[in-house]
C-alpha cells in the first residue's frame, strides 16, 4: 500500500506541456474514422462481414486464453453476486416450489396418459435434434450489442443460423462462423427477431430484442388473450428455429408485454452453451463427435 | 538496495521496452477483461474498465497512451462483441480527448481528480446513449448507469494501483514531475 499512498491516484500533470497538437489532431481524425465506420454499419449492418470474420478468427484464441485465466476471478464474482441475490430470491423460490410441486403431479399424470396414447397409436416419436456443447470465450460488455463468442466453429460442424441453448431455454443463434469460433446473437440484441407462440392458446407473436434485458413481444395476433407468467416458445415459423424451444415467460410492461428469458438464468461464465445442429442427423453427429473432441481444446462435444 | 522486485532503469533496454508498451498492454488487457464472460456480469463495470485505464494514463505527464492504440483497442472490442464497428472505438477516443483536456486542470487534489473521472465516465455513458439512440436500441436505466459509474469510481484506486505498480517497475514515472522514484 506504500506505493498506493506515494503515487497520487489522480496524478496531476502539473507543469506538463499540453498534449501535442499533432496527437490531438490524430485523435480527432480517428474519431472521424470511428463515426464513418458507425455510419457504414448503420446503413448496412452486414458491411465488413468478411474482414470482421478474419479478425475475429485471429482474436478468438487470445480471448479464449484470457477467459481461462480470468475464470477463477469470474467464479468468485458469480458466487458473490449469487449470494447477494439469493436472499431476495428465497421467498419467491418457496412460492415457486409449491407451485411446481403441484405442476409436477399434473405432469406425472399427463405422462402416463401420453404413454398410453402413444401405445395405442404406435407412435414412433421424432428423432431429437443433436446438440454439442461449446465454451463461451467472450461476450459483449454491454452497449449496443448482446452477443457471445464461442470456441467452436465450422471445424466442429457449426453453421450460421444454428440455435444456441443456454441452460433452460433458447439463448440465441449463430450469426457468424469462423474455423474454430462463432458469434452468437443473443435474444436481447436489437437485431434479434424470433417468431414465438405464447401460452396454451399458442397466440402468435414476434420476440423483438431491444438491447435491454427483457425483449418485447410484438405483432401479437388479433384478439390474443395474454396473461403474465405464460410460457413463450419458438413457433418454428420462418424455419430458423425448431418449434417448441422454451424462450421464457411473459411479463407485463405498462401497456405492452415483454419476456423474461429462460436462458438469462444461466450466468454465461463457465461458458458451456448447447448448439443445436439441425443440419446433421443423430448418426452423423455421433460420428463427428470424436473429431470435435480433438479439434477444439475448449469445445467439449456432447452429442445427445 | 531495497527489497522486492528490481525496478528497471529507464536507460536499460528492458526498461525502455516496458516504458513503451506497458500503457498499451494495460489497455489491451482491460479490453480483454471487459469482454471476458462473467467478468462483473450485469454490472456494466466491465466496459468502463478501459475508460479508467485511459483516464489514468491521460492525466499523466508525457501522455504515454497513443490515440491510435485507443482506437485499435476499441475496434477490437467492437469485433469481439459483434457490434457495429467504431462504437467502442468512438467511446474510448472521446474519453481520451476528454481526459486529456481535463487533465490540464488537475492540481493534484483527489477530489478534483475524482470529479474529472466522473466527468469522463459520464461522457462515456453519454456517447453510448447517443449512438444507441441513433441505432434504435433501448437505453439502459439511469439507475443502472449511475450504479455502474459509482462502482467504477470505487474500484478506480485498485485499477490505478495496479497500473502504477507496472509503471514504477518499467521506470515510466521516472520522467514525471511526481516521480514515483523521487517520492519513494
Give the SSE layout.
The complex is a heterodimer of chains A (304) and B (184).
Chain A: H1 2-6, H2 21-43, H3 49-121, E1 131-139, E2 147-150, E3 163-166, E4 169-177, E5 182-186, E6 193-198, E7 203-208, E8 216-218, E9 231-234, E10 246-253, E11 256-261, E12 272-276, H4 282-295
Antiparallel strand pairs in A: 1-2, 1-12, 2-5, 3-4, 3-12, 4-5, 6-7, 6-9, 7-8, 9-10, 10-11
Chain B: H1 13-35, H2 49-58, H3 67-80, H4 87-103, H5 110-134, H6 142-170, H7 180-183
Task: List the keywords.
heterodimer; A: 304 residues; alpha+beta; 6-stranded antiparallel β-barrel; 6-stranded antiparallel β-sheet; 4 helices; 12 strands; disordered C terminus; B: 184 residues; mainly alpha; disordered N terminus
Low-pLDDT segments, ≥5 res of chain A: 1-9, 11-19, 280-286, 289-304
Instruction: Determine the strand fraction of chain B and express it as a percent band.
Output: under 5%
Mean pLDDT score of chain B = 78
- State the secondary-structure class of chain B: mainly alpha
- Classify the secondary structure makeup of chain A into a structural class: alpha+beta
Mean pLDDT level of chain A: 75
- SSE arrangement of chain B, N to C: HHHHHHH
Question: What's this, in brief?
Answer:
Chain A has 304 residues and is an alpha+beta fold. Chain A has helices at residues 2-6, 21-43, 49-121, 282-295, and strands at residues 131-139, 147-150, 163-166, 169-177, 182-186, 193-198, 203-208, 216-218, 231-234, 246-253, 256-261, 272-276.
Structure commentary:
Chain A contains four helices and twelve strands. Chain A is α+β, with helices and mostly antiparallel strands. In chain A, strands 1-2-5-4-3-12 form a six-stranded antiparallel β-barrel. A six-stranded antiparallel beta sheet of chain A has the order 8-7-6-9-10-11, with no helix packed on it. With 184 residues, chain B is an all-alpha fold. Helix content of chain B is 66%, strand content 0%. Chain B has helices at residues 13-35, 49-58, 67-80, 87-103, 110-134, 142-170, 180-183. The two termini of chain B are 13 Å apart. Classes of the chains: A alpha+beta (304), B mainly alpha (184). Chains A and B meet through helix 1, helix 2, helix 3, strand 1 and strand 2 of A and helix 1, helix 3, helix 4, helix 5 and helix 6 of B.
Amino acid at each position: 500500500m506504500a506505493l498506493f499512498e506515494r503515487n497520487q491516484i489522480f496524478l496531476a500533470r502539473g507543469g506538463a506541456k499540453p498534449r501535442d497538437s499533432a496527437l490531438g489532431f490524430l485523435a480527432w481524425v480517428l474519431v472521424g474514422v470511428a463515426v464513418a465506420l458507425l455510419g457504414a454499419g448503420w446503413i448496412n449492418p452486414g458491411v465488413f462481414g468478411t474482414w470482421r470474420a478474419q479478425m475475429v478468427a485471429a482474436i478468438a484464441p487470445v480471448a479464449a486464453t484470457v477467459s481461462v485465466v480470468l475464470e477463477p476471478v469470474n467464479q468468485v464474482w458469480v458466487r458473490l453476486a449469487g449470494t447477494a441475490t439469493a436472499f431476495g430470491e428465497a421467498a419467491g423460490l418457496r412460492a415457486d416450489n409449491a407451485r411446481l410441486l403441484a405442476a409436477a403431479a399434473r405432469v406425472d399424470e399427463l405422462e402416463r396418459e401420453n404413454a398410453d396414447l402413444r401405445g395405442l397409436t404406435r407412435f414412433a416419436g421424432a428423432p431429437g435434434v443433436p446438440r454439442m456443447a461449446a465454451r463461451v470465450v467472450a461476450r459483449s460488455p454491454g452497449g449496443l450489442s448482446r452477443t457471445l463468442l464461442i470456441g467452436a466453429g465450422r471445424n466442429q460442424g457449426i453453421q450460421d443460423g444454428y440455435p444456441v441453448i443456454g441452460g433452460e431455454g433458447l439463448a440465441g443463434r449463430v450469426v457468424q462462423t469462423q474455423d474454430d469460433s462463432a458469434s452468437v446473437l443473443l435474444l436481447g440484441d436489437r437485431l434479434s427477431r424470433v417468431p414465438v407462440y405464447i401460452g396454451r392458446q399458442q397466440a402468435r407473436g414476434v420476440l423483438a430484442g431491444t438491447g435491454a434485458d427483457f425483449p418485447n413481444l410484438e405483432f401479437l395476433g388479433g384478439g390474443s388473450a395474454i396473461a403474465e407468467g405464460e410460457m413463450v416458445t419458438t413457433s418454428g415459423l420462418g424455419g430458423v428455429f425448431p418449434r417448441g424451444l422454451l424462450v421464457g415467460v411473459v411479463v407485463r410492461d405498462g401497456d405492452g408485454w415483454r419476456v423474461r428469458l429462460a436462458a438469462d438464468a444461466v450466468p454465461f461464465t463457465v461458458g458451456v452453451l448447447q448448439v443445436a445442429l439441425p443440419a446433421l442427423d443423430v448418426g452423423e453427429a455421433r460420428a463427428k463427435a470424436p473429431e470435435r473432441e480433438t479439434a477444439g481444446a475448449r469445445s467439449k462435444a456432447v452429442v445427445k | 538496495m531495497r527489497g522486492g522486485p528490481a525496478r528497471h532503469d529507464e536507460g536499460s533496454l528492458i526498461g525502455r521496452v516496458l516504458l513503451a508498451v506497458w500503457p498499451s498492454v494495460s489497455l489491451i488487457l482491460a479490453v480483454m477483461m471487459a469482454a471476458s464472460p462473467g467478468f462483473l456480469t450485469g454490472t456494466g463495470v466491465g466496459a468502463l474498465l478501459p475508460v479508467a485505464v485511459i483516464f489514468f494514463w491521460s492525466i499523466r505527464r508525457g501522455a504515454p497512451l497513443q490515440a491510435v492504440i485507443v482506437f485499435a483497442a476499441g475496434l477490437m472490442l467492437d469485433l469481439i462483441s459483434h457490434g457495429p464497428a467504431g462504437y467502442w472505438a468512438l467511446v474510448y477516443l472521446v474519453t481520451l480527448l476528454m481526459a486529456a483536456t481535463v487533465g490540464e486542470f488537475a492540481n493534484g487534489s483527489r477530489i478534483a481528480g475524482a470529479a474529472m473521472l466522473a466527468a469522463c465516465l459520464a461522457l462515456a455513458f453519454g456517447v453510448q446513449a447517443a449512438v444507441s439512440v441513433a441505432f434504435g436500441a433501448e437505453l439502459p436505466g439511469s439507475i443502472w448507469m449511475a450504479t455502474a459509474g459509482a462502482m467504477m469510481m470505487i474500484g478506480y484506486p485498485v485499477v490505478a494501483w495496479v497500473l502504477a505498480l507496472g509503471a514504477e517497475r518499467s521506470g515510466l514515472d521516472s520522467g514525471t514531475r511526481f516521480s514515483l522514484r523521487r517520492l519513494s
